[in-house]
Structure formats: structure tokens, C-alpha cells
Design a protein that fits this description.
alpha/beta; FAD/NAD(P)-binding domain; 7-stranded mixed beta sheet
């Protein structure tokens, strides 16, 4: 997609990063009538390490942005098939008053382009192939960034406020002092695309019994996300809570997983369509601070990824919307103190849930525990259905069922556990 305009010298809000969080924040700010500029280091369309599956939470946010029709031709799926220990269980997404019961599989290269274009159509300025080299700080306040274009000299882009949305490795965030809690769980993921005749299946698949090339159990998960275009996104994620985490070669782990599922998915494990791509995923709100006097941190840059299942796109869209609302209030009232509400909103919405999820990640980081929980779960549909509701963060605010009762018990225990 082309740039939306020539570089300006100022904006009300500068957004560093044009991925899900950055583009969504730009859209909401632009609809509020604010002058917003997105700085995106790469050029759309571009690849990302991602499973490409949009959950019902993410679909809700895209619908609210008016993008329902944009995904009408994308591959729709109805739920999850969980596999492990020679068993499988297929479950539709749970009913919920705020979310639908379907998701989409769409490549990030396409998804991010659509949302960025939507932000531009709403009035945002997008500068692709531009990097925010360093923040501009005046008397302790972030006032913009030094920006380097693809060919020109660096220039200063001033702004009243800055949104940090440059992803999991957030260089811009670190330059402002954000730090990831080193002892909190994170994951590494690797994925590629394969051709398969089963590309149009209505279920995404999650494997709970990962094994390495020596057939040793490894705590993590594998996935197959049919894309509806003749291919499937196939990958593995490995939790840092595994004792031998640093000794595992994730490329070899992916090879072993694809070899195990090759016959069932009718694919050739030796012929991925492109080289696998990998990345590290901070999770559970592990990055702080998420707000400063004139900046906010959103999405993966804030580590707002669900440790239960590695979902990050839905939380990127949600945190972007929260940030945009806070910034709109600050701009409308000319009161920067509004920004300090953002961190509390994150904690109120995700804090306790992420703590429970982090503790869960530590438990399943032990191969014996992972195997036993998989064995029990795959023999009990009711148990797996409420586990799906908890792990997808679709607990019902208006009804108390088995999942809500189970989560309540877990949350009570977690309150007395160390915050790690």
C-alpha cells in the first residue's frame, strides 16, 4: 500500500509501529478527529511470526472498527480441535454475550495491511519504511521522535503524545525505560506454511503433546490453522517455564511436529512454502511501565499476551482502544494526567487473569504435569469445554457456570501466590 502523505513535522499523537495495536490506536484516534501519524519501519504487506488465527475477541474488535465486510472472504472457522496422546476432541467456541462463536484465519501480511489502510481512510497519516530512531525528550517529557526515512536524512516529528506499538522486541519502548520482568514466563514460537488438501476445515487444531526429534515430551503446543487458500499455518510454541527451555532447538521441534502430523494432514513435511520464521513472545503483562507522562505502551510492546494460549492480536486491539480513549480525553481536556488511568485500566481488566495464567504456565512447564493434564482433559468433554472458556478468556460476566466457578477457585489461590 502507498504512504498516505509526505512526512509532516508534527502531530497530536505519534504512533511507533503500524501492526495490530498501532493501526487500531490510529483508527480510533482518527475517528475522534485527532491528527495522528503512524511510523512503520517496514513496508506493507509484511510477514510476522504469528498463527494467523483471529479469536472471537479479535473479531469483535474488528467488527467494532467497521471491518466486518473486509473479512467476509477470509477463512472462517468455528472452534478448536485439541489433540494429544492419540486422542482428539473438537469444540465449538463457547457462547458469550459479547463475542460471536467463530473466528477467521487470515495471514498477518493481509490483516495488518487492511487495518492500516482502514486507519488511513479514517484520517491517519502512515509513513512506511520509516523508523523511529529515538525519542525526542524535553524536560523529561517525550515530545516525539527522530525519524529516519528509507533514503532521506533523519527528521524530527513532534507530537503531544506518543503511543509505543513496535512489537515484542520494542526498541523504542526500551529507550524510554520499559523493562520485561525477567522471571515471568515468555514463549518462543516458530511457524511456516504448507500446502494441504484439508485447508478449508472449519476447525483450528491445537496439539498438547509436543515431542522433540528424540520423542521426548516438551511442554508447549503445536498448531495447524487451515487458511482456506490451499495452505495451512503450522507452528509450535515453547514455554520458558520448561527447565530445559534454552536447550531446545525450535526449528527441530517444528520439524518433528510436522513429521508427526504429515500423514493426517496430507502434506509433505520437507516442502514448506517459505522458510520458517520465529520470535520471542513476552506474555502476561510482563513489561512495565505501560504509561509515562506523555506516552502509552500497547499490545506486544507491553507484553499483553495471554499466557494460557499465546493469543496477542485480540489484546493488541483491546489495549489500543483503551489507549485511544485515554488519549482522546487528554487531548479534549488538555490534561495529560488522564494518561495515568491507562495502567490501572490494564490491571483492572487483565491483571488477575494474567496472574492466574502465569501460574498455569509454570505448572504445565513440567512435562509430567502437562502430560497428565492432557490425559485427563481429553477424556472429559465438559472439563475441556470449561478449560477452553477460561483459556480463551471468554468467562461470562452475566452467568456463573462450571468454568466461572473453576476460574474463581484458581483466582482465589493465585491471590496468595507470588506475583510471578
Amino acid at each position: 500500500m502507498p504512504d498516505s502523505g509526505l512526512p509532516g513535522t508534527s502531530a497530536e499523537v505519534l504512533i511507533v509501529g503500524g501492526g495490530p495495536a498501532g493501526a487500531a490506536a490510529a483508527f480510533w484516534l482518527a475517528t475522534h478527529g485527532h491528527a495522528v501519524t503512524i511510523i512503520e519501519k517496514r513496508t506493507f504487506p509484511r510477514e510476522k511470526t504469528c498463527g494467523d488465527a483471529l479469536t472471537p475477541r479479535a473479531v469483535r474488535q474488528l467488527d467494532d472498527m467497521g471491518l466486518s465486510s473486509a473479512f467476509a472472504a477470509s477463512h472462517r472457522y468455528e472452534g478448536v480441535r485439541v489433540t494429544g496422546l492419540e486422542r482428539e476432541l473438537t469444540m465449538q467456541w463457547p457462547e458469550h454475550s459479547e463475542y460471536g462463536r467463530h473466528g477467521y484465519v487470515i495471514r498477518r501480511a493481509e490483516l495488518d495491511t487492511i487495518v492500516a489502510e482502514h486507519a488511513v481512510a479514517a484520517g491517519a497519516t502512515l509513513l512506511q519504511g520509516h523508523e523511529a530512531v529515538r525519542p525526542l525528550v524535553s524536560r523529561g517529557f517525550v515530545r516525539g521522535a527522530v525519524v529516519q526515512g528509507p533514503t532521506g536524512a533523519p527528521f524530527e516529528l513532534m507530537a503531544k503524545y506518543v503511543v509505543v506499538a513496535d512489537g515484542a522486541n520494542s526498541r523504542f519502548g526500551r529507550s524510554l525505560g520499559t523493562i520485561r520482568s525477567q522471571d515471568w514466563p515468555y514463549a518462543t514460537a516458530i511457524r511456516a506454511y504448507w500446502t494441504t488438501p484439508r485447508h478449508a476445515e472449519p476447525w483450528i487444531e491445537s496439539a498438547l503433546d509436543l515431542r522433540d526429534r528424540n520423542d521426548r515430551a516438551v511442554p508447549g503446543y503445536g498448531w495447524v490453522f487451515p487458511a482456506g487458500d490451499g495452505t495451512a499455518n503450522i507452528g509450535v510454541g515453547l514455554l520458558s517455564t520448561f527447565r530445559d527451555f534454552k536447550t531446545v532447538n525450535t526449528a527441530h521441534l517444528l520439524e518433528a511436529y510436522v513429521a508427526r502430523i504429515a500423514e493426517r494432514w496430507q502434506l509433505d513435511p520437507s516442502t514448506p512454502l517459505r522458510r520458517p520464521v520465529s520470535g520471542r513472545i513476552p506474555m502476561g503483562g510482563s513489561v512495565a511501565p505501560t504509561a509515562g507522562p506523555t506516552y502509552l505502551v500497547v499490545g506486544d510492546a507491553a507484553g499483553v499476551v495471554n499466557p494460557f494460549n499465546g493469543d496477542g492480536i485480540d489484546y493488541a486491539y483491546e489495549t489500543a482502544r483503551l489507549a485511544a480513549d485515554v488519549l482522546h480525553d487528554a487531548l479534549a481536556t488538555n490534561d495529560a494526567s488522564s494518561l495515568q488511568r491507562y495502567s490501572k485500566q490494564l490491571d483492572d481488566r487483565y491483571g488477575q487473569y494474567f496472574k492466574v495464567a502465569r501460574l498455569f504456565a509454570r505448572i504445565v512447564g513440567r512435562p509430567v504435569m502437562m502430560r497428565e493434564m492432557t490425559r485427563i482433559g481429553l477424556h472429559n468433554r465438559t472439563l475441556m469445554e470449561w478449560a477452553l472458556r477460561i483459556m480463551s478468556n471468554e468467562l461470562r460476566p452475566d452467568e456463573t457456570g462450571l468454568a466461572e466457578l473453576a476460574y474463581g477457585a484458581m483466582s482465589t489461590v493465585a491471590k496468595f501466590a507470588p506475583n510471578a
